[in-house]
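Think of the structure tokens as a kind of shorthand, similar to the way a musician reads notation: each symbol stands for something richer, in this case the local conformation of the backbone. In the example below we present two proteins back to back. Begin with the first one, reading the sequence and then the tokens, and try to describe in your own words what changes along the chain.
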Amino acid sequence: MSELIAISSGELSARINPLGAELWSLTDADHREYMTDADPRFWTGHAPVLFPIVGMLNGGRYRLGHSEYALPKHGFARTSRFTVVQAAPSEARFLLSDSAATRQAYPFAFGLEIRFRVAGMALQVEAAVTNPGDAPLPFSFGFHPAFAWPLPGGAAKEAHEVIFDRPEPEPIRRIDPASALLLREPQRTPVDGRVLRPRAELFEADALIWDRLSSRSVRFGAEGGSWLDIAFPDCPYLGIWQKPGAPFLAIEPWHGLNDPEGFTGDFHDKPGVIMLPRGDSRRFRMDVTVRPG
């Protein structure tokens, strides 16, 4: 296992694995953990970075003109070793660039930098995708943090809520269990006004996916316990997921989606794909503010 990079504000501490530039731990001054325990009975991930796709491709392959390429679910960044560019007391930066191995699956030049910074009780994560190539760069990006459920503070698991910053009346999308592709028909939202009350049975058919999202932040927690304020100003989609019964809830801001059922179009036309002009960059931020109970 890679040696974890630790950063701290004195009030809040984070540990990041250079393998995947993945946040593994987020603790307060009392050493209480706000991230998943990664129990292998459920899921060994913590907070993978999703690039250059979000979700699953139809048949595990995508098309570029007359060529086809294979990519695993959520892309290759989460299993790639990033270079540690900076490891300061309260800030760390990690960089992944294209290589001969990445170009076999994704034939583009790119840079992906992930910056973590803690200040007070807030963690800021910022991803920057750059295009050093000669042609537009098609890609998607997503965050996939899994938080402790229940959070520290003593509130019961069933008392926890996800509160959106705006009402969310629009239907949501679900995933076909066999293919892991987006089902064609939207489904009724489980959000009551602004409030989602997560429960294990909601996730028996995998993630809840908002592709017509109004909010750009949510609160997760329970009265009498801790809360997390999670802001994602640059991501228009959201997934919420867990393995039913697991002690975590993944709250995932995305700019990308699984392939819809039957999708056989060009990668440039995949839902949520960004076309980044040559020489340009695109940033995605996620802020997690801890309010201990």
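Once you have a description of the first chain, move to the second and do the same.
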Amino acid sequence: MTVQELKSAFQEAYGKPAEAVYFSPGRVNLIGEHVDYNGGSVFPCALSFGTYLLLAKNDKRVVNFKSLNQTEVVSLGFDNLTTRLGKLWVNYPLGVIAQFLKQGIEFKTGYDLLFWGNVPNGAGLSSSAALEVVTAYAFNDQLGTGFNRTVLAQIGQKSEHEFALVNCGIMDQFASANGAKDNAIHLNCDTLEFEHVPVKLDGVKIVISNTHSPHKLDSGAYNQRVAECKLAVEQLNKVRPIKYLAELSEAQFNEISSAITDPVALKRARHVVGEVQRTSDAIKALKAGNIEKFGKLMNASHVSLRDDYEVTGPELDCMAEEAWKVEGVIGSRMTGGGFGGCTVSLVKEDAIDTFIKEVGSAYEAKIGIKPEFYIAEIGDGARRVE
């Protein structure tokens, strides 16, 4: 939908014009998966699609929530803005508003809110983070709170922990808040230090392949991985004090890995330590213009996520494995939380049509679901549109 169409939808929903329009993007992570809550570095980029929020003040002490993507419409009085609502979509923006209120920030007026997003839900491209960050950015602007983009990302993350009940790391919200056109973000998830790294892909495009098998982070499998990594840290602490798995080099980890007596926790830790190294190597390769090496590291990342972290599943494995067979594919891996969702691939421009045809038909034949493909454009982070 265009901004004009969204403004018309707002007028229709609330009988008055929107006073402001905000946007926050989804993200794709090029490499560095499941390391953000383990203190490691990640390498996401913001996408050109995301979530819009249109709003206007109202003269009642209520906040009205409406989405063009969802059926439930919710109206909440000021006294009810800090309590989560079962499993409703409203928890994502509501959780953000609750964070503002918990910091003693006052709402002097009510608001009418209208959301619309074109990030496919359940695709692992962070539709939830885009929803949280656009809400945080909008209210930061409306209430004049002056929070920087990193704080807005942290507000979104806290909202996800407390209202969506997913113990996510900071990556998704950070990428949505801090994205920059044609740049990926090298983010240290422990210190939150980051740099924008130009993504120069001469004759190569980023292709996102949607398995249409929705990932379900809140199913408990994600929180289970967080707990397994925590157990690995606890067992390693008997021989070496660490806060996060990402503090260890592969050599250091190999020296003390026998301290992890739980076999599942050992596999999870091995993935994290290896992925941190792969991410570092991949960013160096990109800066040096060595896209072929970057692609090989993407492939190795997927194998580790499949075998040691066990978050891929048949759909993502099929999508990646079929991609590896196509000439002109430099690298392909699952991206996001896993358990369904999308793969991200680096594909030579002249091979994109072949890639979509061959991977699409093989995937549909083996899995029985028709996939969808997007050629990604790297966009800017959260902003006010009008």
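Compare your description with these statements about the second chain. The chain has a mean pLDDT of 95.
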